[in-house]
Amino acid sequence: MIDRYVIEYNSNLIRKITNSEKVDSFDSQYNAAPTKLLPIITIKSPNKLDFVHWGSTSDYAKKKPLADKLISLDVSTFSKSNMHYNLLISQRCIILCNGFYLWKETSKNEKIPYYFNHIKDKIMLCVGIKEKYEDFEGNTFNYFSFISKRSSHKWKEFSDNIPLVLDFDNINLWFDKNKRFDEILDLIYEPEISSFNYYTVSPFITDLSNNDKKLINPKNTSNQYGNYSLFD
After folding, report:
1. What one-character DSSP code corresponds to residue 19?
2. Tens-place pLDDT, residues 35-82
3. DSSP 211-224
4. Does residue 202 lie within any of the structural domains?
5. In total, how many domains does the chain have?
6. What is the DSSP string of 131-156?
């Protein structure tokens, strides 16, 4: 499961996606992680950026462990749950993503971080949903989750599931409020691993406070503890 990704600010590309002359600026994120406030584009406001917490807010996460389902929802969930079905119909969104990090397990207690970036597109259009959470005290916050599926083929050595993506040509169709459930699902797909450059990077992505661009630079193979690994 992806729990770190990268989004670099590029006003020209974002204007192309939103079909808007003006877009809000933001600091590029080289270690976008759950609880952070990140840019997405929603079906309700397809011509602007919306800044929403990924999975939860940091305050809420301190009180309660962050569930995986808040970070990523398997696409099969939408056909099994009326609540999630309705969210896909009315609250789907696009998550802008230049690349993402995945961990490759090399032994029972060792894993190596890799960075994946798309060969063709500078920005990937990952798909997700935006949802509102309300606790028993009446406190509310908005959050987004990736839509993913069980990974296949070569992805399996890196992750059990992989985010689904959308082609640039289908942005308007994705935000068409009249689309049926099956038509929505037909627009999204699992990207091929062959469409990516990928290489080992620093394990310091585990530090949420680290947002250095150097995180995406290739590094010699080292495990989650920063120790060099004998495996690749």
Report:
1. T
2. 999 999 999 999 999 999 999 777 766 666 666 668 899 999 999 999
3. --GGGGS----B-T
4. no
5. 1
6. EEEE-TTS-EEEEEEEEEEE--GGGG
